[in-house]
Write a structure and sequence with these properties.
By secondary structure, this protein is mainly alpha-helical. It has ten helices and four strands; from the N terminus they run H-H-H-H-E-E-H-H-H-H-H-E-E-H. Strands 1-2 form a two-stranded antiparallel sheet. It has a two-stranded antiparallel ribbon with strand order 3-4.
Length: 293
């Protein structure tokens, strides 16, 4: 099972849209999670990302990204609960370690839980981006800025699956030995292999004249219905999130006593996020023009 989400062409509106618009759509939900700590709003953003991933048929890939971030999220909750002793409700009284009493409060757990939830939202947004945005199109946006940087990023992206296959073959070969090598030795072998491949690729590009290459002129691509839908949705999400923040909605204060805003404004932001995740993939027009995606 591959742990890192990778891009595969699929017939969906998100895959068919231009790279800049698709990235803006994914980043809009990440920005909302950055602005708000309210659990109701964050739950709406999570639901929106799940709906969008289901519409783009990359739900499995997004789940892998979330699973990668899950251990870090658990550590955030544990560390926050052990380090911060602020809060009015003690749920666990521990002993004294190094002169410090380990008392866990409900507010510290809630604060760590919100930080972990925001981390998972960012991981889900990145997983959606990694699985639905063509890396070649994304790197094509950098051609006018730095041709060499775009080429380097494109090669690095393409070599990741190659290095993964090298690691799998090394692991399979190690099973035939009487004593299998440690994981550290396998990682070092893969690293050495990657350096060898990088040297070979650099030499091959140099003899082909890529060292003197100049940025290519970008071709104008007309906006499709999917570009318009996704861009409009991203603008609505960002505008609603900014307006709600300026209006004081989505309040959350864990200390000294847990205070969570849960009024119509927070519910409206959550429902708007869910609707924004579903709108680009709803209706017959969303399924037109995606067969070649």
């Amino acid at each position: 099972m591959k742990l890192i989400p990778t891009y595969r062409p699929r017939a969906s509106a998100l895959h068919s849209a231009r790279a800049g618009v698709a990235v803006s759509f994914c980043a809009a939900f990440g920005l909302t999670a950055l602005l708000y700590s309210n659990p109701l709003v964050l739950a709406g953003v999570v639901a929106a990302l799940v709906v969008a991933a289901a519409g783009a048929r990359v739900l499995t890939e997004m789940r892998r990204a979330v699973l990668l971030a899950l251990p870090v999220a658990v550590v955030l909750v544990i560390v926050n609960a052990l380090v911060y002793r602020e809060g009015a409700h003690v749920i666990f009284r521990g002993g004294v370690v190094l002169g410090r009493r380990l008392d866990v409060t409900l507010e510290a757990v809630a604060g760590g839980g919100i930080a972990a939830l925001r981390l998972l939202v960012f991981a889900a947004a990145f997983g959606l981006y990694a699985a639905a945005v063509d890396p070649d199109r994304m790197l094509g946006l950098m051609r006018r800025v730095s041709y060499r940087s775009a080429l380097t990023g494109s090669l690095a992206t393409r070599l990741i699956p190659v290095l993964q296959r090298d690691a799998e073959r090394m692991i399979e070969a190690s099973r035939c030995r009487p004593s299998a090598p440690s994981r550290g030795r396998v990682v070092l072998a893969v690293l050495a292999r990657s350096l060898d491949r990088a040297t070979d690729v650099a030499a091959a590009l140099e003899v082909r004249g890529y060292a003197r290459a100049r940025p290519a002129r970008g071709r104008r691509r007309p906006w499709s219905r999917h570009d318009t839908r996704l861009a409009a949705t991203a603008v609505v999400v960002v505008a609603a999130a900014a307006a709600g923040k300026l209006a004081g909605a989505g309040g959350f204060d864990p200390y000294p006593a847990l205070s969570v805003a849960h009024g119509p404004a927070e519910l409206g932001l959550a429902l708007l996020a869910v609707a924004a995740g579903a709108v680009p993939f709803a209706g017959a027009r969303a399924r037109l023009g995606v067969a070649g995606a």
